[in-house]
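In this section we walk through a basic example: taking a raw amino acid sequence and producing a predicted 3D structure, encoded as C-alpha cells. The instruction is simple. Fold the sequence below.
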Amino acid sequence: MSGLRVTWEAMPLVVAPVALAYALFAAGSVWLAVVDLRDHRLPNALVLPLYPLILVLFAVAALAGGDAAPLLRSLLGGGVLFLLYAALRALGGGVGGGDVKLAGVVGVVLGHTGWAAVLTGTAAAFVLGGVVALGLLATGRATRTTRIAFGPYLLGGAWLALAASIAA
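The resulting C-alpha cell sequence is shown next.
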C-alpha cells in the first residue's frame, strides 16, 4: 500500500516536468517551423538548447516516478533519429545540418512516448514533405531542384505521432 501512496504522491513531480517538456517542444516547434519556412535555416541557437532542457525535465520525471525506461528511450530515440538524418545528409539526401540536429530533438521527444511514436513520426515527416513537394511540383510552384524547408514536416510528423499515441 505504501508503494501506491508514494507513486500517487510523486505523480505531480512526474506529470509536471513531462508536460513542461512537451510545452517547450510545442513552443520550439512553432518558432522553428516559422524560421525554417522563412529562412530555410534551423538555427543552432533555437535547436540546441532544446536538448538539455527537455532531457533534464524527462530526467526529473524519471527520478520522481522511479522509472528510467522513458528517459532511456528518449536518449536512444534521439540518437537513432540523429544518426538516421546524419546518414541521409552524408548520402546527399537533401537533408540539411539543421534537420539533422532537429531530428535528434524530435527523437528525444518521441522516444519518451514510445518506439511506435518514433516510427510513426519519422514516416509521417517524409509523407508530409513528399505530399507537399508533389503538390508544389504539380502546380508549377517548384521544380526538382527547388529547396524545400523540411523542418516543418519533421515537426508536423512528430506532432501527428504524438496525437496518434494519445488517441491509441
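Looking at the output, two observations stand out. The first helix runs from residue 2 to 39. The chain has a mean pLDDT of 93. In the next section we compare this with other chains.
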